[in-house]
Specification:
- The protein has helices at 16-49, 63-80, 88-108, 116-123, 128-146, 157-164, 173-204, 207-221, 227-230, 232-244, 300-304; strands spanning 54-55, 58-59, 273-277, 282-283, 289-290, 295-298.
- The protein is mostly helical.
- The strands form three sheets. Strands 1-2 form a two-stranded antiparallel sheet. The chain has a two-stranded antiparallel sheet with strand order 3-6. It has a two-stranded antiparallel sheet with strand order 4-5.
- Residues 21, 183, 186-187, 190-191, 194, 247, 273-274, 342-345, 348-350 line the site of protoporphyrin IX containing FE (HEM).
- It comes from Alectoria fallacina.
Length: 350
């Protein structure tokens, strides 16, 4: 990857990104919230104004590109700070790079090994996007590394990567860029899918709009504690949306908001998740065995539509996970649990 080396062995890539995302990012979210909020507001406004067809007071937008732009701008702020947000080529590369990697990896699965380097190079457009990202990001890291790495004014993933780099043998700037771009790759697609489905659900069930607005306004005004902790309906709605359309679904429909109302398009797509390729023959405790090279998956959609766990499982119920009296016993959207594996399983889940 443009001179950057990604090791197949997991630990060889280091583990500071686990600390950065799992701990530092989480603890700084309240401070980042105002910037994220403003970015979301601005991006929505500019996307809605940018050339979609208008009918009376409605504007048609292509929802997936719009949401990807939204995720890109907010994630870019959280990952790299404000410095680069005016560079159009860099912003384009931020989306192009993960898309190139995904399409290339799919094509490589069916490519003979001897042709792989040539095909990969063509599919990755000779690394144009990643080269541009490295060219833009490397000087930023190098400059920041020269300053105090614990620079408290800077609050973004880049800075925490620099600050968390081992003191005895600090990471080179190239490695910081490499690992951060790896994280970046993981940070685009899933959130974008989750938001698209939540927007579809909101459009299909507009009765939640007012209730959600009311809850958000009330919780934002109540300045005691973290407002998000109090937004039980929002949490439940998003969790139900994730249950109804686990975002690992196979395809995203080409629908436009203007065509509303419509059936929830995700209903018949297939979803498996958490793929694991066996690197040695293995027998599970129930006797099921897999051979070398087999891929084991979690049947996410089937689990999420299991009537014994979710009564009326094929009906969207935004209040499904709101139970006021025993709120503490109901897992939140962001909790990692085996029954609801949208974040993955066990200690490897984020
Ligand atoms: C709605 C949002 C998201 C969903 C539903 C989601 C879901 C998942 C799932 C199912 C996995 C596979 C876990 C496994 O195989 O056990 C995964 C892995 C991963 N995700 Fe996410 N993710 C989301 C957002 C993010 C974000 C924002 C980031 C980065 C800031 C991120 C970074 C990663 C990374 C680095 C991995 C690989 C972890 C590993 O190899 O152990 N994800 N995610």
């Amino acid at each position: 990857m443009d001179g950057l080396i990604v090791h197949d062995v997991r630990n060889a890539n280091g583990s500071i990104h686990f600390r950065v995302v799992g701990s530092l990012l989480r603890s700084h979210l309240p401070n980042l919230h105002p910037g994220i909020h403003q970015t979301v507001v601005d991006t929505f406004a500019s996307e809605l104004m940018s050339g979609g067809k208008t009918f009376n007071e409605w504007t048609s937008v292509r929802i997936f590109p719009m949401v990807k732009n939204l995720i890109r701008t907010t994630n870019s702020l959280v990952f790299f700070g404000k410095d680069l947000t005016n560079d159009a080529e860099y912003l384009k590369a931020l989306l192009q790079y993960p898309e190139d990697v995904v399409s290339t990896s799919e094509v490589l699965r069916f490519t003979p090994t001897f042709l792989a380097p040539v095909v990969a190079s063509i599919m990755m457009r000779r690394g144009r996007a990643v080269k541009h990202l490295v060219k833009s990001l490397l000087p930023v890291v190098e400059q920041r590394m020269k300053r105090n790495s614990q620079d408290s004014e800077q609050m973004d993933i880049f800075q925490w990567m620099i600050g968390s780099s081992p003191k005895k043998s600090p990471w080179l700037a190239t490695k910081i860029v490499q690992v951060t771009l790896g994280l970046w790759f993981g940070s685009i697609h899933q959130p974008a899918m989750a938001i698209v489905y939540a927007l579809y659900d909101l459009c299909q069930h507009p009765q939640y709009i007012e209730a959600l607005r009311e809850e958000m306004t009330r919780c934002e005004e109540n300045k005691t504690g973290d407002p998000f902790e109090e937004m039980v309906l929002l949490d439940s709605f998003l969790k139900e949306s994730a249950r109804f359309s686990p975002s690992d679904s196979r395809e995203l429909p080409k629908l436009r908001l203007a065509k509303l109302p419509f059936e929830n398009p995700s209903i018949d797509t297939v979803s498996v998740s958490l793929r694991r390729k066996a690197i040695a023959p293995y027998t599970f405790t129930d006797g099921l065995s897999v051979k070398f090279g087999d891929v084991a998956c979690v049947p996410m959609r089937a689990m999420m539509r299991d009537e014994s766990k979710y009564p009326n499982a094929r009906t969207f119920d935004g209040y499904r996970f709101v139970t006021d009296s025993q709120r503490d016993s109901v897992a939140k959207l962001t909790d990692v649990e085996t029954k609801f594996p949208i974040w993955g399983y066990g200690r490897r889940a984020w």
